[in-house]
Amino acid sequence: MLDESRRLGRFVQRSRTNLLLAVFLAISLAAPLTSVIVAADDTTPPVGTLKVNGGSPVTNDPNNVRFDVPATDDLSGVAVVQLWVNGGGPLVIDYAPSFVIPLPWWNQGPNSIEVRWQDVTGNLSDAKSATLTIDLTPPSGTVKMYDYDAAGVTFDVVASTASDVAGVVFACEDQAVPAVRAYATRITVPYGPGGLDCGGAFGEVTFHVGLKDAAGNVSLSDVQIFRDPTLTLTTSASAATGHPFTITPNQPGDYLLPSNGGCRWEFRWGDDASLDDQNFNETFGSLLFDIPARSGRCQPWTFTLPWVPVRQYEINVSLYIRQSDGGMLLFGGVRQRFNASVDSTERRITSSSLPIAQVLPSTYTPIVGSPVTYTRYLIGGASGSGNPVWVAHLGTGEDPIVWEKWTTSSTFTITPPKPGRLLVQWYREQSSLLLGAMYDPPVRYKDTTDPNTTAPIQRFASGGAGPTVPVSITWSGTDKGWGIKGYRLERSVNGGAWTKVTLPSITTKTIIQQLTNGKSYRFRVRATDKAGNVGSWDYGPTFKPRRVSDGNTAVRYSSGWKTVADPTAFGAVVHEATAEGRAVRFTFTGRDIAWLAERGPGFGKAKVYVDGVYIKTVDTGHDLNLPRRLVFRKHWSYVGTHTIRIVVSGTSGRPTISLDGFAILR
């Protein structure tokens, strides 16, 4: 090939020389003598520049190499370009400022290139040289899926030689322009333009991923995941038992389920232990049902919200595609919880826009040895055909007690012989679409033991004082049977009738009351257990809040204290001291004491001693001015005589300590 190319070059050169002589003779006969002298005097070769492959030193496409070879010649003009590659050549090419050709005589790896320009008179320029590396080998390594969610996919990237990698390529199956990221060992690529632009591709999605080198070689491999569409739920603005409630699943606008697709619904209720930890108790129940898609989308569900022992509901919706083998492919799940107010105590779902089944027990607290009946209700046009079955499991582990009854009957009665977790469910056995419901309360021995409580204990709480003071009331309870269901707290004021104290929840064991100075109070509490047993009242002591002014003669000051007018203080005046060691002492009889003072900028620290024992250092500083605060509190179990002593610390920059009096519970 080399000899043939050289012969071709000499042939082209001789042909051009003969043509030039013919032109010269013609010009000699027809043109003035001065023109002939100009052509004969062209002894200057062309001058040009060389750029190969757009200036990139490496390529993986030797069949399409671009040469930029612009050149000039003073007289006769540039005629041809001569190309040598790795010593082979020349390949003679008609002059053009740039051209793209297959590179001759190339090798894998570096290739030396020389270019010369020849003008019409035959003058040949000096050579311009360049090196172009031909790299046809993609970088080696792996790109694997690490994790994915609705937002994108995270890949683990491993390169055999990291320096060989110029970037990492990612693309969905039909993505025209792949996403390219700088090399890293873990890369997250979001869905959408500039990332994995999959459009409406959901379900089984194939990604093309690979390592890319500087030459453009890519080691592609395929990664398959199941891409879940982002499903959301919209619910009615408010929820109340006995009223219609609507739940609407929302699919992405570009995603439609196939004809064999639909939505799987699970509607559950229960306390946190049941819903979060699967620690099912008497508050738990659920419905399960499959609904085919309509026009590729899930249908909304409107139903009357039932009363349940704990008004905490949870809806779970998943998309499904029915498989040819009869199985279900579930994906795109979404979960949402909501609470409801009570307008009705009806336990049944009395209306439904979708076909559902509901199971209700005759009691939420099954007892060992006592029969319990479960009733199945079909609602919203649901059918009980399809070989319906009742199944109950008592106990966990390898050997539970199992009841099974194939029947069209809407009721199912069992008598549990032992305590343990009891799962009772009804469902259609022979149907491609799930329809079922369950209840899962535990079975217990009969509980006839009353719960116990401790007597309520009063303490000053944090906050501010005025005509009232904040007092916390605390108690606890125990039960040897099923456990405590809730508490009832009552109080009597000035020896009057007992009245109920509203608790934040029935299981609350601490509450803060604002109690009026000068009035006497007494609190009592009792518990009810989950079996309905009611405990006896436990009574706290009778006590009276009382405020002692900072000007009271029982309050004894050392030197260095002064009175300061303060419209926010009790009596519009407080005592203040700034020097370290200044002290105030107060002896009282009671079961609780609180130091009242102003907190704010400029106020500092003081040490507090009770009955001669150091208790703590109190910092009365604050960003805001807060008058009449209970800055120190102390409680005793019994009424007694005690002495409180406050010693100024002389805090640098904010030494002031104020005394606006004391509060006592006696």
Tell me what the structure shows.
There is one protein chain. The protein has three helices and 51 strands. With 666 residues, it is mainly beta. Strands 20, 21, 23, 24, 27, 28, 30, 31 and 32 form a nine-stranded antiparallel beta sheet that branches. A hairpin with a 6-residue loop joins strand 13 and strand 14. The longest helix has 29 residues, at 2-30. Mean pLDDT is 90; it is low at 1-38.
Topology of helices and strands:
Blueprint (H helix, E strand, L loop, with lengths): L1 H29 L2 H8 L6 E2 L2 E2 L5 E2 L5 E4 L2 E2 L5 E8 L2 E7 L3 E4 L7 E11 L8 E7 L6 E8 L3 E8 L7 E6 L6 E3 L4 E5 L12 E10 L5 E10 L4 E4 L8 E7 L10 E9 L2 H6 L7 E8 L8 E4 L7 E11 L5 E12 L16 E6 L10 E8 L8 E7 L6 E6 L4 E4 L5 E9 L6 E5 L2 E2 L8 E2 L3 E4 L7 E7 L2 E2 L5 E10 L5 E3 L8 E7 L4 E9 L8 E2 L5 E4 L6 E3 L4 E4 L7 E5 L5 E17 L5 E6 L2 E7 L6 E23 L8 E3 L1 E5 L1
Parallel strand pairs: 3-10
Antiparallel strand pairs: 1-5, 2-4, 4-8, 6-7, 6-9, 9-10, 11-12, 12-15, 13-14, 13-16, 16-17, 18-19, 19-22, 20-21, 20-23, 21-31, 23-24, 25-26, 26-29, 27-28, 27-30, 30-31, 30-32, 33-36, 34-35, 35-39, 37-38, 37-40, 40-41, 42-51, 43-46, 44-45, 45-50, 46-49, 46-51, 47-48, 47-49
Average pLDDT confidence is: 90
Which secondary-structure class do the elements indicate?
A: mainly beta
Share of residues in strands: over 45%
Distance between the termini: 117 Å
Shape verdict: flat
Low-confidence stretches: 1-38
- Major sheet attributes: 9 strands, antiparallel
Short description:
With 666 residues, this protein is mainly β. The chain contains three helices and 51 strands.
